[in-house]
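#onboarding

Welcome to the new folks! Below is a worked example of what a typical request in this channel looks like: someone posts a single protein sequence, and someone else replies with the predicted structure as tokens. Don't worry about understanding the tokens yet, we'll cover that in week two.

Example request:
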Amino acid sequence: MTLVDAYLGALKMMESTGPRPLRQAAAFIAASPALVEEVELRAHLAAADPNDELRRALSLRLAIFDHHAEDAAWTEDTPPNTRARREVVLRILEVEEATAVLLGDLIPIANLDEPIVIADKWTPWYTEDIKRSREFYWQHYSESLQAAPHLGPKAITALDKATDRVVERLANPTAAEAYQAKGLVVGYVQSGKTANFTGVIAKAIDAGYRLIIVLSGTTDLLRTQTQRRLDMELVGQENILRGIKPDDEAALDATDYVGEDPDWDRFVRHGVRPSDGGGSDLYRLTKKSFDYKSLELGISALDFPKRERHLPFFHPANLFAGNTRLAVVKKNSGVLKKLVADLNKITTRLEEVPTLIIDDESDQASVNTSKPKPLSAEAKKRRSAINRHIAELLRMLPRAQYVGYTATPFANVFIDPNDTEDIFPKNFLIALPPGPGYMGARDFHDLNLDIPLDERTEENSAEKAHVRIVNEDEKEQDSDLQDALDTFILTGAVKLYRESLGRGTFRHHTMLYHVAMQKDAHREQRTKVKEMWDRSGYRSASCFERLRNLYDKDILPVTRRPDGGEAPSTFDELVPFIGDTVNRIEKTGHPVLVVNSDKIEGEELDFATDPHVWRVLVGGNKLARGFTVEGLTVSYYLRQSRQADTMMQMGRWFGYRAGYRDLVRLYTTQALYDDFEDICQDEEFFRDELRQYAPLGADGEPQITPSQIPPLVAQHHPKIRPTAANKMYNARVEQRRTPMKEPSSGYPLISDGASLHDNTQAFLPVLSSAVDHPGVIDLDGRPVNVLSTQLTNEGLVSILSRLHWAKKDSFRPDLNFLREAKPDMIADWHVVLPQLKGQDAQVTIDGVGPLSVHRRRVINGKLQAKSQPDDRSLVQPIANRAGSTRGGMLLYPMVPKDATVQGELSTSEVVMAFTLFLPQASGATDGKLITWTTKDSSLPDYALVSV
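Example response:
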């Protein structure tokens, strides 16, 4: 017994008990107090790296205690994730003051982002007692995650809480009355949705769900990847081997993974047969290389025997003695037809079987496309094939719970809610936050970056660090492709350099070349990339000058960012690792691999069984939606789409890049890059809207339900729709009472001079008054020059009523609320114009000035007219004062970043952008941030979809 073993045992004990005196518990386990002196514990923790087993276990336990709900007595009603909570925890642990200080330094309070939940009313049943009394699969799954170096304690705690939010909204599997919940979980692209639904499945099995069906994409590649991941992290060795003896070589040879998967030793071990350890034995109806096949394992494999025949299967006496069936199936009509047919043959009454259907990439193939309007009984018979089979499963299994997972939810929320057999998420929509270390839109786009364009560098700009613009002219793109291949070589060499220092291992290293969807084009593209590879001279010193320049100008500066990793200070130090990089990439003789439904060169892409995939991958759809391209470092992307969800799903460069995020590069055209920025803003807008309406109203009722979500969807790009169908809303937002209003996407196009003229004319009296009131505001010790004035609410409403918008209803719900606000809610407004230095500060507009104009990028004809986050502190405190009836307004005359400004500007050259902060007294008395009206009273208030 060692000090580490004793303290690990003490922390393990606290999983069920909550916090207890730490050293006392460790001494009990060690049977020797002298072995667990706290001074020795501190010495161990101070010397340990973040991946040390004890430090990780202690970090996880503290994060769980920090985040625990206030319902446990030991929390003493302290709010989660606060200093007060941590003080309670440390006091109960009875650690010495020096230990408490060290824990505070090594393990700061976890600031976990909560999932956003939009839900209808539901009956709570998944209590902490139920969770703790039955957590066989969740416990082993979470323990397997603890052993993964890329997942820290904060991420595991966040996953635990996020999966609770899903499971608690499913039906109680032991309830006498059958109930079918339908929900949607929205993640970011490659942000950990699989980890979430694996955790949901684990907790659902523990709670009593006995049939698990995972609909896993439309390709064998994705289905196989999902099957292996579930087998590895959830099913475990005991359920796979099913009692096969270690010396039975013939049986082992016929078993998945044994002897062929290099990670077999990492597959979760339960230690016992699950049914002998308080769990449910898990039978796989599909295998790694075999999708569901009718009766292949015998019909009994699908049956659910009862221990107590006189009781229904969902009775606890039967349910918790029963086995669980797991099927991971491709969304293929033939496969699902077989599953539906076999379920109809089993002897157990299907209405008694608690079932969980997980629909991965639920906006693909699952959504009905056969008829856009509310379906008649006859039309329901003509559903698209996959949707029809899902509807059949839901009809056959009244205790089935349907949970869709996607990063692009718009197709799902536009489903007809009145169609009870369809998959509209009528009960809940949960938006997951990205996990720690995720590279998303803000890691590739300078959204709201408060740094002038000419001052942006690789160290302070995400775009300059990770994005390389490709020439729009195809004939001029060879040099860009050469740079991309050279970057692939250099980043691979840096990874090997980091391995040599013990800074992790990099099993896979890949580059994605995604230019077209058509398979015929992939062969030509492979030839093009291979020919350039052969000309690049990577096996001789002839390429060194080219590589040296790229390393010094591109790779090295980005490694110096705050999130950068170690890299050789000179190219010469990197040279010894270049040869090994080339050897790995050329290991098979084919550095470029085509990945589509055709088998090229007699091989397939398999990140699971191949110990090292270091390749350039050429492909289309098969390398897009849902599939994780392991080790992806360089993306060369030139494929256009006019659907936002399709484009976002092709953004494989988003994801977790532990140990090499500073090496990630995206090569694309300026037009495509701008399109992605618009799409990312659609996504952020959607989440921001959901976040505002997630809290319950003052009456305890939901502010909105899932059926009222569609009108919250925005479209920043004039030609790229959120999803394939046109959207026609029957529900319309009447009032939007949000405390901050920034209609940045609603202003007229920069080319619409007449509308810009009218808008500027409306604001000229405000500008004239503000020019007469210059001042300086101290902002955290920094003086900020401003112009300011006051407006009555009636005066502001009069101005805003005259404005033109890109879309007629852009600001209408906000204006409706401001117009109806009484003086005891909103009396007046303090208007501030932040001022700049230099030429742009000495401008007049139609004779009014001098004042500052602010420059912003123009994307697809629209000025990116957002306020600067720091400027908000100039007015927000005024609005936030208790009982305040005075709102705050930031006003920005804006022009394109490349506009010529020479003293005098015309009213048609300026976008008048503003941000409003509503006063504290304006809060709606009913707690509702949004109210609705119906366009056609003869129709229900849901979204209609037309194609």
